[in-house]
Structures are given as structure tokens and as C-alpha cells.
Specification:
CATH class of the largest domain: Alpha Beta
Distance between the termini: 13 Å
Radius of gyration: 24 Å
Strand order of the largest sheet: 6-7-8-3-9-10
CATH superfamily of the largest domain: P-loop containing nucleotide triphosphate hydrolases
CATH architecture of the largest domain: 3-Layer(aba) Sandwich
Number of domains: 2
Number of helices: 11
Order of helices and strands: HEEEHEEHEHHHEHEHEEHEEEHEH
Number of strands: 14
Length: about 325
């Protein structure tokens, strides 16, 4: 089952032959399924398109299929059914060309502990058959604030620096697509924000970035589009801003001078709730209906005043991407 609201129509056979000719997608996933020998179905006919030059965040709970999907696209796991095109290259029929386009930063911090940063990154370039290019390696290391560590052995680096080296390794062969699987797991807040800036710079240079993360604020901060996967199925794909508007909710919170035991009958027509032992009155509405609710808020405030209710403060807030994500996953369960 696929609920990708960016593509409601099923791709016909002609479109399936080469999606890259008709769209600006750099990755086209078509009917992708993965069933293991145990019978577990990790992916269930996934359709997904990644646009060239975007930052795409793939969200989902543990076991949802995120890593399986990435592993298939990167050629690390074989699909049971379906097809993947990477910049027009079939990942099975034209494996080498497809894989050259991709850089992968895995979750695990694995490397030769006694190799230097320079040798570690340079070796990764050679694995893709690329000629030695010290100038490119230097640019990559400088962009990731690793130049001063180029002669350091991996064993001497902090966890955050090792994660930067993983990104450098993934960029060594000049890929146009970069997969980041939980890129900031285990790093402190300051370094996490530094790495967000690195990702933005990569996107600005033309690299397409796909990241999985369990830090919802990471996706909220960086992504152009959000994809949600649950139980092997794409629940939705949407522009981040549109997602926040369509599925987000806004709250008008009023802090009352005198607590209320119950909402007065005169205000019963409004979607109001009491909180904090009657000290707070909350008016909740869909963010997509904000324009329509402006008049309603004015009427509400007038009716509150007419009911003799006084408040000391009021403010509005919008639900976070985390709240939207939790509600989506709960509904799909």
C-alpha cells in the first residue's frame, strides 16, 4: 500500500521504463518490496521519488524499513521485487554507474583505528576507481573542519570527529547523492548544529542529501521534504512547510486570573479545554484553517470578556513536526 500524496496516480509501464526522463527525480523507487527468508516483509511495494538537489528526510520508528530501503538503493541488500533508478541508472543492470553517484554515511563508526584521516579518506576514493586527487581530498577535509586532523590517527579522534570522517569518506569519490543514516547520533548539540551547516553547504553545492534521523528537530530544521515510513510502507511524502500547514495544529493559550471549574455554557460552541487545574484555557484549531479562525478568535475573546473571564496572558503556538509524526504513525498502526 502506498499513500505518497506527491504522486496519486500509479505509474504505467511506459513511465516505469525510465522515470528520470519525465521528472527531475534523481532517485526513482518503483514497487520496491523486501521479504526475508523468515517471512518478515520489511518493505511493501514502496514508491518514492527523490528530487535532484533537495534535502529529503526519511522518518519512521525503529523497524519501519528505513535502513532496508537505503541499503537496497545503495546496493547493499537485494530487493525481492521492484526497481530503483539512480540518476537514470538501474541499480541492478547498471550497478557500477548507479553506485558511483552515491555516497553513504552509515550509523556505525567503523574504520582502521591506526590509519590517518588523510589515508582513510583517500583510500575510499580509490575504492571507486577514482584517480588520486589530493586537491579534492583537501577541499573535503577543509569543508568538514578536518584539515588540522589530517595526520591524526582515527583512534585519537572524538566520536563527533569520527562521524565527520565518515562524511568525508562518503564524499571522497565526488558523488552527487549523499545518504546520511542517523548522521548526528551520539554527538553533542553544538556539533550537531555544525553538521547541519555542513549538510546545507553540500546541498548548496548541488549534492542531493537523504537523511534518516530520530531527532525530529533535525528534519524540521533542515529538510525540504519529509517522508514518513511505517511498517514497510510509505505513509506520506510532502513538502515540509505544506506538511506543517496541512497536518499541524495551532493552540491559543490563555492564562486566567481566576481558575475555572468548568467551561461556561456561553462558550460551549468553541473547541476549548481547561488545563493546569482550570488556570489555563486552550483553544485548538487546524493550522490549515488559520485564516478562517482569525475571526473566530476575535469572537472568542469578545465572548470570554462578556462571560466575565479575565486573563493575564495569552500566546499561540503551532504543533511541532514531532507531534505530527507521532500522530501519523499512530493512525497508520
Amino acid at each position: 500500500m502506498n499513500h505518497d500524496i506527491t504522486a496519486n496516480a500509479t505509474l504505467d509501464e511506459a513511465a516505469t521504463a525510465d522515470v528520470s526522463e519525465t521528472t527531475d527525480s534523481v532517485i526513482a523507487v518503483q514497487g520496491l518490496s523486501k521479504r526475508y527468508a523468515s517471512g518478515f516483509e520489511a518493505l511493501k511495494g514502496v514508491d518514492l521519488e527523490i528530487r535532484r538537489g533537495e534535502i529529503f528526510a526519511l522518518l519512521g520508528p525503529n523497524g519501519a524499513g528505513k535502513t532496508t530501503l537505503i541499503s537496497i538503493i545503495c546496493g547493499l541488500v537485494n530487493a525481492s521485487a521492484g526497481r530503483v533508478l539512480v540518476d537514470g541508472h538501474d541499480i541492478v543492470e547498471d550497478y557500477r554507474a548507479a553506485r558511483r553517484q552515491i555516497g553513504l554515511v552509515p550509523q556505525e563508526l567503523t574504520s582502521d583505528a591506526f590509519a590517518t584521516v588523510w589515508n582513510t579518506v583517500s583510500f575510499s576514493r580509490g575504492l571507486f576507481g577514482k584517480r588520486s586527487d589530493p586537491a579534492h581530498i583537501e577541499r573535503v577535509l577543509r569543508s568538514l573542519s578536518l584539515w588540522d586532523k589530517r595526520r591524526s590517527k582515527m583512534i585519537t579522534l572524538s566520536g563527533g570527529m569520527k562521524r565527520r570522517v565518515l562524511i568525508a569518506k562518503a564524499l571522497a569519490h565526488e558523488p552527487q547523492i549523499l545518504f546520511l543514516d542517523e548522521p548526528t547520533a551520539g554527538v553533542d548539540v553544538a556539533l550537531r548544529r555544525d553538521m547541519w551547516n555542513v549538510v546545507r553547504d553540500l546541498r548548496a553545492s548541488g549534492v542531493t542529501v537523504i537523511l534518516t534521523t530520530h531527532y525530529i528537530e533535525e528534519a524540521e530544521e533542515m529538510a525540504d521534504r519529509i517522508g514518513v515510513i511505517n511498517d514497510g510502507d510509505i505513509v506520506l511524502v510532502e513538502e515540509k512547510a505544506a506538511l506543517m500547514r496541512q497536518l499541524g495544529r495551532k493552540r491559543l493559550t490563555l492564562h486566567l486570573q481566576t481558575p475555572l471549574a468548568a467551561i461556561p455554557d456561553a462558550l460551549s460552541e468553541y473547541p476549548l479545554t481547561l488545563a493546569d487545574d482550570g488556570r489555563v484555557l486552550v483553544y485548538t484549531y487546524a493550522a490549515s484553517d488559520e485564516h478562517r479562525h482569525r475571526d473566530g478568535i476575535n469572537a472568542l475573546l469578545n465572548d470570554i470578556q462578556a462571560a466575565g473571564i479575565r486573563f493575564t496572558d495569552l500566546h499561540t503556538e503551532q504543533s511541532s513536526l514531532e507531534e505530527i509524526f507521532v500522530n501519523l504513525v499512530r493512525k497508520d498502526a
